Amino acid sequence: MALNSIGLDTEKTQALAEDLNHLLANFQLYYQNLRGIHWNIKGKAFFDLHVKFEELYTDANTKVDEIAERILTLGATPLHTFEDYSAKAQVPVGKNVSKDDLAVRLIVDSLSELLKIERDLLEKSGDADDEGTNSMMSDFITEQEKTVWMMKAWLSETV
């Protein structure tokens, strides 16, 4: 087994980097969705949601950078074109969403997709003894589960 400069199996880290690029593409689409609903939200919940969506897209932007830097740390190149993101993303596209409940639903549906990808990465990074990726996924999952719970509460839904 060949090890890279951070002591991980190079074959396993290449596979993890590919999966992280898949997550990156989905996060970029999620980020764009958040920007769009932040700009376009209308209605009586505007003031609260406008601020909340900005908080979420700022956090998503930070996570995009963390994911890209982890890919680089593993010795791969992060995706960086919208063409690549569109081709690889599974997160739903939120075009012209301005109604509050549809915007919040878009967030829940997007985070649900991200959580599936992150849970898969959590398992694979554990198998590869990649504590850096594993810890990142664990932190992302914890935060996003709470956000899903809060958004579903806003929608008067249960988990």
TrEMBL record:
Pfam families: Ferritin (PF00210). Belongs to the Dps family. InterPro entries: DPS_DNA-bd (IPR002177), DPS_DNA-bd_CS (IPR023188), Ferritin-like (IPR012347), Ferritin-like_SF (IPR009078), Ferritin_DPS_dom (IPR008331). Residues 19-157 form the Ferritin/DPS domain. The lineage of its organism: Bacteria, Pseudomonadati, Bacteroidota, Flavobacteriia, Flavobacteriales. GO terms for molecular function: ferric iron binding; oxidoreductase activity, acting on metal ions. It comes from the Bacteria. This is DNA starvation/stationary phase protection protein.
